[in-house]
Automatic annotation (TrEMBL):
Catalytic activity: a di-trans,poly-cis-dolichyl beta-D-mannosyl phosphate + L-threonyl-[protein] = 3-O-(alpha-D-mannosyl)-L-threonyl-[protein] + a di-trans,poly-cis-dolichyl phosphate + H(+); a di-trans,poly-cis-dolichyl beta-D-mannosyl phosphate + L-seryl-[protein] = 3-O-(alpha-D-mannosyl)-L-seryl-[protein] + a di-trans,poly-cis-dolichyl phosphate + H(+)
Stated name of the protein: Protein O-mannosyl-transferase 1
A GO molecular function held by the record: dolichyl-phosphate-mannose-protein mannosyltransferase activity
EC main group: transferase
Family to which this protein belongs: Belongs to the glycosyltransferase 39 family.
Entry-linked SUPFAM superfamilies: MIR domain
Keyword set includes Transmembrane helix: yes
Primary site of residence: endoplasmic reticulum
Amino acid sequence: MLGLLKKPFVVTAEINMNLVALTVMGLISRLWGLSYPRAVVFDEVYYGQFVSLYMKRIFFVDDSGPPLGHMLLALGGYLGGFDGNFLWNRIGAEYSMNVPVWSLRLLPALAGALCVPLAYQILVELQFSHCAALGAALLILLENSLITQSRFMLLESILIFFILLAVLSYLKFYNLQRHSSFSGTWWFWLLLTGVACSCAVGVKYMGLFTYMLLLAIAGLHFWHMIGDQSFSNVSLMCHFLVRVLALVIIPMATYLSFFYVHLTLLYRSGPHDQIMTSAFQASLEGGLARITQGQPLEVAYGSQITLRNVLGKPMQCWLHSHANTYPIRYENGRGSSHQQQVTCYPFKDVNNWWIVKDPGMQQLVVSNPPRPVRHGHIVQLVHGITTRYLNTHDVAAPLSPHSQEVSCYIDYNISMPAQNLWRVEIVNRESDTDVWKTILSEVRFVHVNTSAVLKASGFLGASLPEWGYRQLEVVGEKLSKGYHQSMLWNVEEHRYGKSQEQKEREVELHSPTQMDISKNLSFMAKFTELQWKILTLKNEDTEHKYSSSALDWITMDTNIAYWLHPTSSAQIHLLGNVVTWASANIAALVYTCLSLWYLIRRRRKIYDIPEDAWQLWVSAGGFCVGGWAVNYLPFFLMEKTLFLYHYLPALTFQILLIPIILQHLNDHLCRSLLLKSMFSASVVAWFSSVYFVYCTFRPVTYGQPSLSVTELKDLRWKDSWNILIRKQ
C-alpha cells in the first residue's frame, strides 16, 4: 500500500483536437450575437405562445407534433427565469425586458452547434478518412440555412441533432459488434440509438422517417448475422431480443415519458382543452373541473344532466331546447311538425339541462336510494325549463330531409301521438350491466319506435336559419351504421334532482352542484386521447407568402424572410449556401450513376473497386442517400403547407454525401499522381467558393451589418428570391 503512494497518480487522456476545434467553431457560429435581434423572428411567434403556456402550466394541444421540442424550448425559458408574460401576436414585435431572449434561443443554438462535430464523427465511423470527415463538418459549419435555423426559437436544429446522434450511435454500436458484443460501450451506444430515435420523433414526427431507416438497416444487418454460422441459435436469439428491447420497446417507453412530463406540467385548464372530452377537461385544474368537481358519478332516474356531443368538431355543443317551435313550412316549401325546437348549442346555458325520467313513474326527482340507469334501459328525457319530452317521429329534419326531425313534444290534439321513449346504449361499456356514468360513459340514444339514433348533424357544416338562431341541427339518424362520434353523447354536468315543483326545479337548475365523487383519468387514457387529437386535429392550411413545394427545395428556388429591422435594411433570411446545395445535388446524382454502373459491371463479374471499398460505398449510400430520400420524398405525399426549412434534415444527409463522393473519386478514379494533384486543387478551389458564398450571405444570415439597397439587390441571385428592399 505504501509502495503505491510513492508513485504519482497519473491520468492520461486521448483528445481529438479536430473534434475540439470543430465544436468550438460550431459554438461560435451559432452562439455569436444570439440575442440579436431582440424581436420576434418568424415562427418564434408560433412556438413562443406554447413556451408561455408551459410557464403558466396551462394545457394546450399542438397538432404539429409531440411535446418534446416544445418542452426543450420551455426549458430554456425556465432556465432564464421567464414568467410567460409576453403577447406573441406578430413577427417583429420587440421583446419586453422580462423575456430572456438568449436563454430561449440557447438550446436550439447548442443543438445546431453540436451537429458540426456529429457530422465529423459519423464519417469517421463510416470508415472514411479524417480529411473527408473534416470536410463534412466544415460544410455543416458553413451552411447558411442551418446557421439561421439554429439561432432562433425553432425546432429544426434540435430535430437534426437527435437524427445525427441516432445515426452516430448506431454506427458506433455496429462497429463494436465485431469485437465487443454485449460490452458496456456496446450497450451504451445501442441504448442511446433507441433513445435518440425516440427524441427525434418526440421533437417532430419527421424524426419517424430516420427512425424507420435505422430500423430497416438494423434489420438488414441482423439478417446478415443469421447467415453467419459463427453465431449459435441462442446467441442470435439474444441479439434479436436485445435489439427489440433497445430499438422498439425503450423508444416507445421514452416517447410515452415525454407525454407524461407534458401532462404533469400542464395541469391547468386553458382555451385548448375545449376540444378534449369532458373526462379530460374535468381532470384539469379550473375550467370544467370547477363545475364538475364532486358531481354524482352514476346517472339515476331523476338526475338533472347536460349532454355534450362527443365529436366536438368544429366546436363543442350541448343538447339544447327552447320554447320556440319549428316553422310550419320551411323556405323550400316542406312542412314541419311545428313542435318545440331541439338543437345542439355551442355555449353553456340553462336550456341545456335535461331530466332523466323513468317512463313508468311520474316523479322527476331522484329516489332514496337512487336507482341507477344501466345499459339497455328505456328512459324519457324531459327538458328542464319547458318540461317537454324529447321526441322524434317520421317527419323530415329541416336541413337533413333523409333524417328524422327531433323535437320536444307539444300536444296539439291532432293525430300525432308522442314518441318519446329512448333506449340508453353505453358504447364504451365493459359489460351489458354497466351503469351510465357522468363524464366517463359515451352513450347512444336509440329511439324505441323508429330505431333512429340521436345525432348532431350540424357538424357537417350547416347551421339552422334565423328561426333556429343559427344553432346546430339535431336529427334522428335512421341508418345508424357503427358508432360515429356525432351520435355519441356524454353527461358533463350532473346533479340529483330534489324538487318536484317546476318553479323550485328552475331555481335548482340555475344553481351549482357539489357532491363528493371524484373522476380521475389514468395517464394512458389521457395519453391516448391527446395523441389521437394531435394526429387527427388539422388546422385549415392556408396559403402562406413563403410557402413552397418540395420541388422548389432542391434548387433553392425559394427563400423565407425571417425578420426585417423596423427602420434600417437589416434583415434575416432562410437562404442556403448555393454552392453547397448544388454540390449536394451533384453528389447524389454521381452516387446514383456510379452505383448503377458498378452494379451492372458486377453483374458481368467485373469488379472495378475492391470488395471492402464496395461495402463501404453501399453502407455510405444506405445512410446518406437513404437519409436524404426518407426525409425528402414523403413531402410529395403530404397535403400541408410546406416551407423551405422542412428540407433541412434531408439536406444534412445530402451534405454528408459530398466528401464521401470526393474521397471515392480521389481514391478509385484518379489513377495517376497528376490527376490526384489536379483533383485536390479543384477541391480546394471548390471549398473556397463555399466559404466565399458563406461570407457573401452572412449579413442576411445573422441580420448584421445592415446592407445598402445596391448590396441587397446584388444578393438576389435568383429572381424567385424575395430580398426585402425598402422604398426610398
